[in-house]
Amino acid sequence: MEKRKELTTEQLEDAKRLKALYESKKKTLGITQYTIADDLGISQGAVGHYLNGRNALNAPIASVFAKALQVSISDFSPSIAREVSGYAASNTEDPQRPVILAYTYPLFSTVQAGAFAAVGSYTEKDAKDWISTTKKASDSAFWLEVSGHSMTAPQGVKPSFPEGMLILVDPQENVKYGDFCVAGTHNDTEVTFKKFVWDDGYRWLEPLNNNPRYQSILFDDNCRIIGKVVKAQWPEETFS
Fold this sequence. Notes:
DNA binding, alpha+beta, single chain, 434 Repressor (Amino-terminal Domain), Umud Fragment, subunit A, two-stranded antiparallel ribbon, 11 strands, nine-stranded mixed sheet
């Protein structure tokens, strides 16, 4: 994964103004980073990243902050306020246009789309980045980056998860046969991303790539499901 994208001076100033408003109003309004996190559907750590200028604000996130602090978005981000005004004008012309919410989850170490491979620890403080998505998952959800080619399906076959794609893993979701999952062994110090299947009376972790070099892995007593893959998307910098 590439180095975290640096925020612009304007984005850092937005965060600075937002944090000042939060610090001045939190006692009077009886709010905390945890209450704002509940409103946003993200973790307290992610809220802290917005306040401290580690993650850039966007319109949906700014709207929730403004509501919680009882201020206008323009009080901390004039540029996002103009963006939201543009949305409002567009929605006046098209009142049926839906409002799209964004949810943010931490990005942890790369997952090997192959045999079990060693990874870093899954603790929020070790997050490499915070990635937004329209998919609402549990508070335990996190992103991993696919490494390797075993989950790249043959041309024309969907779904496919090429190297570099991000997958959202939700440990609170039940995994059934036919689902995509991340599984771990050795106390989750080694993980793999595969399709969970039942075949010939056994449970298997199956690749999508039909190249003989990529083999199914027997899911035995040494393995456990870490979480179900509920979303996949490319990193934003892929198209920048």
